[in-house]
Amino acid sequence: MEDSNQSFRDRPLNIDDSGKSKKIFAKQPKGKWYKRRTWFAWFCIFFLVLAPIIRINGNPLMLFDIANRKFSIFGNLIWAQDTFILALIMLIVVVFIVLFTVVYGRLWCGWACPQTIFLEMIFRRVEYLFEGNHRKKSNQEIDNISKNLLIVGKHISFILISIFFTNVFLMWFTGPEKLLEIIKSPISENRQGFIIMIGISVFYYIIYAYLREQVCIFFCPYGRLQGVLLDSKSISVTYDYKRGEPRGAKNEGDCIDCGQCITVCPTGIDIKNGSQFECINCTACLDECNIVMKKIKKPANLIRFDSVHGIETGKSSIANMRTYAYSGVLIILIFVFGFTVSYRSSLDVSIIRMPGTMYQEVDSANITNIYNVKVINKTNHTKKISYKLIDFQKGELQFTNDITTLQGEKASQSVLLLKLPIQLLKSRTTDLKIGVYENEELITISKINFIGPQK
User: Fold this and answer.
1) Using CB atoms within 10 A of its CB, is residue 150 exposed (0-12), middle (13-18) or buried (19+)?
2) I need a surface site. Which of 127, 311, 312, 418 has the fewest CB within 10 A?
3) 79-108 pLDDT tens trace
4) Nearest-5° angle of CA 53, CA 38, CA 297?
5) Do residues 385 and 440 make contact, with C-beta atoms less than 8 angstroms apart?
6) 357 and 322 both lie in a single domain
7) Within 13 A of 197's CA, how many CA atoms are on the CB side?
8) Tell me: the pLDDT tens digits for 232-273?
9) What is the rounded distance in angstroms from the CA atom of residue 395 to the CA atom of residue 422?
10) DSSP 65-95
């Protein structure tokens, strides 16, 4: 993979002179960082599988029901009407990504990105099982028939894994009950869903069987984004050139230029060439270098988590004003999000004047206005509610449909006829408040205006 005579990089290292991609057969890492990454990856996988199944207060831990415009985030139901909360979530994610990248580089890519987790912890391990670790010689000496059977077995496993995780992915948008119902139903009744499932499975299979690291190198925009966000104080997997150079077994530097850091790299780069956009901070080279350092009786961490500033000065670069500023903004946003979710109304009430209507004279003493009413129960249990005018005691509310009993996670609609004595109206337009109560406890207030005759 490495061109030792290359003085200037004019292309990614996994591209040959003709422009074709070189397939990377990465060696399976081993070491304390790989163990930590493995445990974290399996936690993420279990979270992915179980999050739509686990329930908190009767709601899924995670659910993005786009069809019904309903989301469950850590057991809290959020509807499309909660635009402020959805905007907060998006803002928190953006600030978190920026903060994490500024401080820790592409640690997300190597530790938590689904592409890396699936490729390194599942698909590559299946490949090691069928074809050996780093194409061991014992596997290369078997006959062609057996080798082809192993390749077929590997690809069948890839297809089955892709189908499984496609259904897990869909479960985040449908919920386990709906997904199970779709699976049990004949294909003819869910042809569109079946086609989507097959399409996503094929997409996953192509990525993990063929494209692999090219997704990180060529397609993922985050790798390009880091070039804007990183600086000399950002933490990343870094080679200590001050200690390692000059390289070679007979030179003074600790690096013996064995190339083991390249054999384990999932994107095929040489970390000794400095910061590169292909590096995903997976720590594979870190573990492998520590093994070599132990064998040659040199201090560990020739390759380590550090920054260019840290290598040059020997001082930590995490504590700085930029880190504090981003962290402060992130903490404030999380606090506002938690406060908003905790104290938001359990009902969403919309009362809007019926388009094209004016006031109606019931008799010489009373007039009415007509409104469209929509009420959404954001909880998963039935609510018994009542409606009252807050400012006027003599007003009368008449609903065409019963919307006093609301089923959990359901919406009800009605038409409201609001009647007021004409003597109470002081101007053509009167601002009113309608309170929505549950067991005589005020839940929310809806503001409307009432139109009367010109005074």
Assistant:
1) middle
2) 312
3) 777 778 888 888 888 888 777 788 878 888
4) 170
5) no
6) no
7) 21
8) 888 889 999 999 988 888 778 899 999 999 999 998 888 998
9) 10
10) ETTTTEEEETTEEEETT-HHHHHHHHHHHHH
H/E run at residue 60: strand 59-60
Greatest distance between any 2 Cα atoms in the chain: 108
Is 430 domain-assigned?
Answer: yes
Give me the percent of the chain exceeding a pLDDT of 90: 29
- Residue predicted with more confidence, 51 or 135: 51
Domain assignment present for 75: no
Strand ranges, E, within 203-307: 236-239, 303-306
Cis amide bond preceding 246, omega within 30: yes
Q: Give the domain-ending residue among 316, 344, 372.
A: 344
The CA distance from 179 to 376, in Å, is 25
d(Cα 154, Cα 127) in Å, to the nearest integer? 6
Name 95's Cβ contacts closer than 8 Å, sequence gap at least 6: 326, 329, 330, 333
125/27 Cα distance (integer angstroms): 11
Question: For tokens 């979710």, what's the residue?
Answer: 341
Q: Which residues pair with 421 in a beta bridge?
A: 366
Give the span between the Cα atoms of 329 and 323, in whole angstroms: 10
Residue 74 lies inside a defined structural domain of this protein: no
Structural domain of residue 133, as residue ranges? Answer: 13-50+82-344
Could you count the other beta carbons within 10 Å of the beta carbon of residue 235?
21
Cross-sheet strand order for the sheet of 70-73:
62-65, 70-73, 76-79
Closest Cα to residue 103, out of 216, 279, 223, 235? Answer: 235
Is residue 61 situated within a structural domain? Answer: no
Contact 348, 376 (CB under 8 A): yes
Residues 299 and 352 placed together within one structural domain of the fold: no
Q: Would you tell me the crossing angle of helices 83-104 and 321-343 to the nearest 10 degrees?
A: 160
Distance CA 436, CA 194 (A): 44
Q: How far apart are CA 118 and CA 104, in angstroms?
A: 22
Structure tokens at 440: 């005589």
Q: Are residues 413 and 267 in the same domain?
A: no
284 closest CA partner among 132, 116, 139: 116
- Cross-strand bridge partners of residue 290: none
The pTM (predicted TM-score) of the whole model is 0.79
**Is the distance from CB of 141 to CB of 132 less than 8 angstroms?**
no
- CA nearest to 171, candidates 64, 79, 41, 58: 64
Exposed / middle / buried, residue 209 (Cβ in 10 Å: 0-12, 13-18, 19+): middle
Instruction: Give the HSE-up count for residue 143: Cα atoms under 13 Å, Cβ half-sphere.
Output: 2
